Amino acid sequence: MGWNSWNSFANIVNSQIIQQQANALVSNGMKEAGYEYVVIDEGWWLGKRDAAGNILVDPKQWPGLKPGQRDGDMANIAAYIHSLGLKAGIYTDAGRDGCSMYPDSGPKYMNTGSEGHYEQDFLLFSRWGFDYVKVDWCGGAKEKRSGAVQYAQVAHAIERAQKITGHRLFFSICEWGSQNPWFWGPGVGGIDTAIWRTGGDIIPPVVESLHDQEHDKRVITVASVLDSFDAGMHPEAQHTGFYNDLDMMVMGMRGMTDAMDRTHMGLWAISSAPLMVGSDLTRLSSATLSLLTNREALAIHNDPYGLQPIKVAEPTPGVQVWAKPTATAGRRAVAILNRTDASAEVKIDPSKLGLDGALRSLRDVWTGRDVATADAAFSVPAHDLLLLLVDGEDKKADEYLATGSDITRIKATSGPTFARLDYTNGTGQVAVIRVKSTSGLSSSLALAPTGASDSGRVGLILPHGTADLSFETQRAGIRKLAVYSW
Ligand code: GLA
Q1: Pairing between β-strand 170-173 and β-strand 132-136 as defined by DSSP bridges
Q2: What are 444's strand-pairing partners?
Q3: What separation in Å is there between the alpha carbon of 295 and the centre of ligand 1?
Q4: Please, are residues 184 and 194 in contact by the beta-carbon 8 Å criterion?
Q5: Backbone torsions φ then ψ of 393, nearest 5 degrees
């Protein structure tokens, strides 16, 4: 959760803008709600290096901010962000050139990528004090590289930098889904946590201070937000630690209405997608801010299982019920998404949510009010979204014990299905293990350490037709799988 400079400032980004936005993140209550990263996207560096290959930045764009600080040192802005109790993010490209060769405004700059300098650059980012790095793909795509190969090398460079500085860079892969990163992103290069973009940009940036024709005509539509959500649903790849990234948020930006903001927030929250807000934080309306800081929506987003939702019903075309299993037994987050031009009446059917019998409670997240379970029927206006928290009784699960590193003879799943996996991991570290199935599942799980005799538990979504699972278990023990009919 945090803020990213690209959507609203593109390549005019500078130290002053970052300070203003970081200050706003604190003063508007977002920091308190859990938004913690301030990420400097493209435009901070124009491709210059010294004779030793070290990145050189414009001293005017990134001046010293305190006595004793040198102009042109990115450690200054990282320290400023840290002084507010926030974390700092930076950006590069996995290729030789970055995206600056396709500038949004201003001239073209070549060589703004890290290829050929991975170890040097990621060590420098870590030394500067950054906590997060977004690695784009413009240069990689131009050179027709393999994403899996390049990003594994970046992961190694991040790990190496951490060994040297003791300081970890969170890995944000930005390859736009072009080479199916949901297959190789989880655990790439052995990394135990990462996010990967699943699609292109929701919109090109809208820089309010630039009044050229290009920027003036950019207006966000609900279709572009929905496209990003649709492209990002890869639930079998996502669970605690590894997340599909649906792109930076455009809430509150030009063209966004309250209903569009609700749709955007509801979909990103129920998907446990990174909440990287791309708007100008000094201009948010109180309606947008209250959605962004809605505690119950954020609790759904931060559910420990970190799963994506499953579409469980579409009573009429374009009126969809999405449900997400949570780490609390019998609890589901439910989004009723109305993509149509007419308002829709939708009744919640507990059996479609994998629940048995009557509901225990029903809560409207936007209003923060309980709704009588007897009338679990809702009216959702055109192009709007209702977010609910539903409590009931889980249907009984089918349980399967592991034999060595396999779980076999699972009753083949008839669609995306929710399961809980019990494991042991006495290594004292997160264990990244591959899991495969003849149904086509091929992913990695990040298993948090457990005590010697305790077991840990993760939630996962099994794809249609899963009848067997095979784990690479050198670093963890697989105990039991509970599969919920859904
Ligand atoms: C790509 C990325 C965006 C942003 C821009 C910067 O388009 O997808 O998120 O980083 O590059 O040029």
Answers
A1: parallel
A2: 434
A3: 29
A4: no
A5: -110, 125
Does the annotation mark 280 as catalytic? no
Q: What is the largest CA-CA distance in the chain?
A: 72
202 neighbors 247 (Cβ within 8 angstroms):
yes
Which residue in the list 201, 227, 364, 406 is annotated as catalytic? 201
Q: Which residues contact 45 (CB under 8 A, 6 or more apart)?
A: 55, 57, 92, 112
Asked if 460 and 236 touch (Cβ cutoff 8 Å), the reply is: yes
Please tell me the pTM assigned to this model. Answer: 0.97
Q: How many CB atoms lie within 10 A of CB 112?
A: 28
DSSP annotation of 188 reads G
- Token code pair at residue 193: 């946590």
Q: Is the CB of 39 under 6 A from ligand 1?
A: no
Query: Are the C-beta atoms of residues 338 and 381 closer than 8 Å to each other?
Result: yes
Q: State the DSSP H helix or E strand holding residue 147, giving kind and residue range, or none if neither.
A: helix 147-165
Helices 75-83 and 15-27 pack at an angle, to 10 degrees, of: 10
Angle (CA) 157 158 159, round 5°: 90
Q: Is 136 a catalytic residue?
A: yes
* Alpha helix segments (H runs only) across 43-142: 75-83, 118-128, 138-142
Q: Which is it for the CA torsion 253, 259, 263, 268, positive or negative?
A: positive
DSSP state of 225: H
The length of the chain in residues reads 486
Pocket test for ligand 1, best of 4, 11, 39, 42 (most atoms within 8 A of CB): 42
Q: What are the 10-residue block averages of pLDDT along the chain, 486 residues in total?
A: 97 97 98 98 97 98 98 98 98 96 88 98 98 98 98 98 97 98 97 97 92 86 97 96 98 96 98 98 98 98 97 97 97 98 96 93 97 89 98 96 95 94 95 94 95 91 96 90 91
Give the closest residue to 446 by CA, choosing from 243, 160, 161.
Answer: 243
Tell me the C-alpha distance between 92 and 46, whole Å. 11
CA dihedral 251, 247, 140, 189 (to 10 degrees): 140
**Strand order across the beta sheet in which 398-401 lies:** 398-401, 477-483, 417-424, 456-462
